[in-house]
Amino acid sequence: QVQLVESGGGLVQAGGSLRLSCAASGRTFSSSAMGWFRQAPGKEREFVAHISWNGGNKYYADSVKGRFTISRDNAKNTVYLQMNSLKPEDTAVYFCAADQRAYHYSSSYYRANEYEYWGQGTQVTVSS
């Protein structure tokens, strides 16, 4: 079992930055690929970023590429999402998610159903 708790959301002006954190409990974090997704009001949950269990592979949605950076610290059981040059369209609830398959590399990392564990989400609001 993995429990995930996101933090770091808030209100920021367009062009600003935020860093989201996702703290994981459980022994399997270091072997789990992790993802960030977001959901805006009235929209479906969408993929934002993915990082492999060892941090060697990182993938991003086209909409955030070059602005967001995903990273992880396995010693701290934490995954991060550094968000720069924020835009009003980035406003959403951001969720982190964990793939329970140990040391697994997924070609479908952008699909929500590839992840078994989810956090409760943290709100990010970008004002124009």
Describe the structure.
- The protein is mostly beta strands and 128 residues long.
- It has no helices and eleven strands.
- Strands 2, 4, 5, 6, 9, 10 and 11 form a seven-stranded mixed β-sheet that branches. A four-stranded antiparallel β-sheet has the order 1-3-8-7, with no helix packed on it.
- The radius of gyration is 13 Å and the shape is globular.
- 34% of the residues are buried.
- The mean pLDDT is 96.
User: Could you give a short account of the major beta sheet?
Assistant: 7 strands, mixed
Span of the ends, CA to CA: 40 Å
- Helix/strand-derived class? mainly beta
What Rg do the Cα atoms give? 13 Å
Kindly state the mean pLDDT as a whole number?
96
How much strand? over 45%
Helix content: under 10%
Q: Which descriptor suits the 3D outline?
A: globular
Q: Give me the strand/helix succession.
A: EEEEEEEEEEE
Residue windows where pLDDT falls under 50 for at least 5 positions: none
In short:
The protein has 128 residues and is an all-beta fold.
Write a concise keyword list for the protein shown above:
single chain; 128 residues; mainly beta; 7-stranded mixed β-sheet; 4-stranded antiparallel β-sheet; globular
Helices and strands in order:
Blueprint: E1 3-7, E2 10-13, E3 18-25, E4 34-39, E5 46-51, E6 58-60, E7 68-73, E8 78-83, E9 92-98, E10 117-118, E11 122-127
Parallel strand pairs: 2-11
Antiparallel strand pairs: 1-3, 3-8, 4-5, 4-9, 5-6, 7-8, 9-10, 9-11
